[in-house]
Amino acid sequence: MRSALWFLGLFGVAVAAALFAGNNQGTITLFWPPYRVDLSLNLVLLVTALLFIAVHLALRALAALFAMPGLARRWRIQHQERMIAQALLDAISQLIAGRFVRARKAAEIVLARDRAMTASGEPLAYSARLRTLSHLLAAESAQVLQDKTAREEHFRSALEQSSSREAQEMRDGIQLRAARWALEDRDAPGALAWIDDLSQGASRRTIALRLRLKAERLARQPKLALETARLLAKHRAFSEAAALGLLRALALELVATAHDPEQLLAVWQQLDNAERATPEVALEACRRLLQMGGDVDTALAWLLPVWERMVDGLGTLTEVQRIGLVLGMENGFAAASGTPQALWLSRIEQAQMANPGDPILQYLAGVTCLRLQLWGKAQQLLKQSLPRLHNPGLERSAWAALAELAEQRSDTAEAAQAWKMAAKSGMP
Questions:
Q1: Are residues 357 and 328 both part of a single domain?
Q2: How would you write the pLDDT of the chain (428 residues) with one tens digit per residue?
Q3: Which of 74, 262, 275, 375 is most buried, by the most CB atoms less than 10 A from its CB?
Q4: Exposure string (b/e) for 101-120, b if CB count within 10 Å is 16 or more?
Q5: CA angle 171-175-178, nearest 5°?
């Protein structure tokens, strides 16, 4: 359709020109004494048009001639930029592929070409960022190759280049990379120093928090590491299972730093409710508090959330956790140098009555009755639990308790048999 319209327009112009030129009788007279020249108006118009076209083409040719140096310079810069981009891509791809020697050479080629362009008076507008990135790639390759001298040289150059205005946005990345290198060198204080030197916004990024967590764990600072891990878990930097495992491990490390009951109480106050309710953490804290001679009621209170979790069925405890809970409560009752509290006895009896076939609860109820000097009931519960106890430690304790009960009755033969069975339970 467009072509048809062009043809119609062209034909219209041709018809108009033919009509004008065919009937045009006009002339133009030029007087050049003593001469007189008469020219047709059509010829004058045609010559004028041809002259205009010739002048236009001549001007275009001159403009193209004078623009050739600029075009040559532009082509030269574009060629150098393409070569630099190719070398930079080569450095990145070689680094990702694990060819670190080639990656460093490619990065050094980028730096050499950039220096050549700067020396020729044609620096790139993004030269500072290009040099910073190239030095960083070379330093990363040197770090993997354990060339600390080359790494420090390229790192210092990258840090200097990042101080320029156009490359300031890369400074945080350089510092994060320096912190990671320090961690690889097992230099926790150095890594923390680089992370602390970050801007406020960059220090709260996930990657910075991950590096801080590793540095604090390497520096054996479980309190700070636990706070960082909580922040990472809040930002969902880990899966739920991984976050729980990490918080549990850090809480256990923090508990292990306490060396007296006062320190342990202070550590316990620093934990949040979810960490206190973790079975491993509560059991370890209770064990250490009893081992240090701390308050028995406090230790048993720490076990209460775990006990409620086991009894109410709100969370499933593993067999190891249930056995650890029972042993922790038994040690607490033994350390009390007296009978268990009536409240604990009521809890244990209610749980055992609600689950009469549970051997672990039968064992705990039997031990509790033994502490209360209810010999007959203790003997009955312990004997009922023994055939289904599959833990050597609980079996040994149950047989030892039955031996004590037999000695209370002055039944020497039964006591000897019970002690013999307790000794066998401890054998592999």
A1: no
A2: 777 777 778 777 767 666 666 666 777 777 878 888 777 777 777 788 889 999 999 999 888 888 888 778 888 888 888 998 999 999 999 999 999 999 999 999 999 998 888 888 888 888 888 899 999 999 999 999 998 999 999 999 998 888 877 777 888 889 999 999 999 989 999 999 999 888 888 888 889 999 999 999 999 999 999 999 999 888 888 888 888 889 999 999 999 888 888 999 998 999 988 888 888 998 899 989 888 888 888 888 888 888 888 887 645 778 888 888 888 888 887 777 655 566 777 788 788 777 777 788 878 887 777 777 777 777 777 777 777 777 777 778 778 777 777 777 777 777 777 787 877 775 44
A3: 275
A4: ebbbbbbbbbbebbeebeee
A5: 140
Among 161, 192, 220, identify where a domain stops: 161
- Global pTM? 0.73
DSSP state of 165: G
- Joined together, the tokens standing for residue 5 give 């319209």
Which of residues 338, 367, 386 is at a domain's end?
338
Residue 100 to residue 266: CA distance in whole angstroms: 49
Distance between CA atoms of residues 347 and 360, nearest Å: 14
Contact predicate 251/281, CB 8 Å? yes
In angstroms, what CA-CA distances link 214 with 206, 217, 248? Answer: 12, 5, 16
Domain assignment of residue 138, given as a range: 76-161
CB within 8 Å of 413: residues ≥ 6 apart? none
